[in-house]
Design brief:
With about 325 residues, the chain is an alpha+beta fold. The protein folds into 3 domains: about 110 residues, no CATH class; about 170 residues, no CATH class; about 35 residues, no CATH class. Helices cover about 35% and strands about 20% of the residues. A hairpin with a 6-residue loop joins strand 10 and strand 11. It is flat and about 90 Å long.
Length: about 325
């Protein structure tokens, strides 16, 4: 007891006014990352949560401010205001060393599950149209359905096979073969060190299987019970959001962000899969969209960019072929 008393008396005065634990970051239950989808997608790409943690300092510029004010007030009340002025840096360092809060974890908990998709690296061909040409398609609906059944390991004549026939018929313009699901971000990345070693992604249960064209915003999806696994390629995993593609599946069907909550979440395995997964072109499409946006913000536009909002002074030409035309880059939209 005497030793403890001597130790207490030998401590700096300011130590009598600080606690052993602090929570510097207060995350309200209404604070989440639902409006920060670009940052979430960046986490998926980098396979860590660093993009979120790097933003914390912007969102909380002075998290230790409240605790410092309280400590200063208490010390001034006891006549030790001058000690606080002299030792403020030591007190601030103590607060940071004894901070037990985890704002990233709290924000993700409040955010909950989000809609992601895994692109299987297969593009289903559909109908094509061109001026003065009859519509054509590169493969029949039967060929497209067979390709999807083979990839998912679904036998012909089953209920799921009939869903696939409907999927191909409704997605008449073709698109990317994808599996949509709901998941927590923490289950898809590896914390802060980026050492996620998954070799296989496993889909077992109820999922939304889609053939979707993100450039034109067309396609279809079907609820299916599937049991299949694929080689995990992180370049094929995406958050369904505007930062990835111009028209999301939510835009196409007028769905809210939580539409996939009813579906299962995939699991991962470190065991290599026998089924290879070709890298999807979705990343290239996203990169192209980003370049179109960069050029537009710099005051220009690009021929080949079909987004009217990224062109200026577009006018209508009422002569065959009737069309909209951008006078700067020559991009046309034929009626």
């Amino acid at each position: 007891m005497e030793t403890q008393q001597q130790e207490y008396e030998s401590l700096p005065i300011w130590r009598n006014y600080v606690d052993d634990d602090y929570e510097l970051y207060y995350v309200d239950y209404r604070d989440d990352l639902s409006e920060q989808k670009g940052i979430i997608e960046e986490c998926v790409r980098k396979n860590n949560l660093c993009p979120i943690s790097e933003k914390i300092d912007e969102w909380w510029e002075y998290p230790e401010g409240y605790q410092l004010d309280e400590i200063k007030k208490n010390m001034e009340n006891d006549g030790f205001g001058y000690v606080y002025d002299e030792c403020q840096d030591y007190i601030r360092e103590w607060l940071w060393e004894h901070d037990t809060s985890d704002p990233v974890k709290d924000l993700l908990r409040n955010t909950g599950g989000m809609t992601f998709f895994y692109d299987l690296g297969i593009e289903v061909d559909g109908w094509h149209e061109a001026f003065l040409c009859s519509p054509w398609r590169g493969e029949t609906e039967a060929q497209a359905a067979y390709k999807i059944r083979r990839k998912l390991g679904i036998k012909k004549g089953t209920k799921e096979a009939r869903y696939i026939d409907q999927l191909v018929a409704n997605a008449s313009y073709g698109g990317h073969l994808r599996i949509y699901f709901n998941a927590d971000l923490e289950n898809l990345v590896d914390g802060y060190d980026g050492s996620h070693n998954a070799k296989t992604i496993v889909f077992k249960g109820r999922f939304a299987v889609a053939v979707y064209d993100p450039v034109n915003g067309s396609g279809d999806y079907q609820d299916m019970n599937i049991d299949c696994s694929f080689a995990f390629n992180r370049d094929n995993l995406f958050l369904s959001c505007k930062s990835v593609e111009r028209y999301t599946i939510e835009d196409c069907f007028g769905m809210s962000d939580g539409w996939a909550e009813e579906y299962n979440e995939p699991t991962f395995s470190a065991k290599p899969s026998k089924h290879k997964t070709r890298t999807s072109s979705t990343s290239a499409i996203a990169d192209q969209e980003a370049e179109y946006e960069r050029v537009f913000k710099a005051g220009g536009c690009t021929c080949g960019d079909t987004n009217l909002k990224r062109h200026r002074n577009v006018h209508y030409i009422n002569m065959p072929p009737c069309r909209l035309e951008c006078p700067h880059c020559g991009q046309e939209w034929i009626d």
